[in-house]
Amino acid sequence: MKSPEIHFRKAEKEDRDAIWKIIQQSIERRRLDGSSQWQNGYPNLSTVESDIEKKFGYVLTIDDTIAVYVALIFNDEPAYSTIEGAWLTNGEFVVIHRVAVSEQFAGQGLVKKLFDYIEDFVKSEHVSSIKVDTNYDNTAMLKILESKGYTYCGEVYLQGGVRKAFEKVLM
């Protein structure tokens, strides 16, 4: 049995509907888990369109099927300028937002794999730090961040809510 072909690439306009479907599945999964994250109309279809247009959107594909979506934003997250706590670094960074896994691929460890691809990509861009936040009740993401060596730095405020903020220094 041949192993699946996995690729990490920028999202394209024609990926929009598949990405939106995956985000809708993730919104529902967060709701079923009893989380308040993503339950207020964000992210939405225009978020996806904006991510693609601004070249923030990336996908992890398995045999050409989109399995995971993520937004990667270089040096720009206004909410991160104010943190209750302290970031590890003050230089250039990449922010990870809107990680969403297709139901078809859920439970296969793909977000951990995604983080490996992101880290390699960020290093290739000569950026030494990744920052990310998540909801207090997103236990799946909290476990992934811990397993991938992210350091808890404090709290930030996004979309009217408090988020746990993490950073990983790559170089």
Automatic annotation (TrEMBL):
<dbReference type="Pfam" id="PF00583">
    <property type="entry name" value="Acetyltransf_1"/>
</dbReference>
<dbReference type="InterPro" id="IPR000182">
    <property type="entry name" value="GNAT_dom"/>
</dbReference>
<feature type="domain" description="N-acetyltransferase">
    <location>
        <begin position="6"/>
        <end position="171"/>
    </location>
</feature>
<protein>
    <submittedName>
        <fullName>GNAT family N-acetyltransferase</fullName>
    </submittedName>
</protein>
<dbReference type="InterPro" id="IPR016181">
    <property type="entry name" value="Acyl_CoA_acyltransferase"/>
</dbReference>
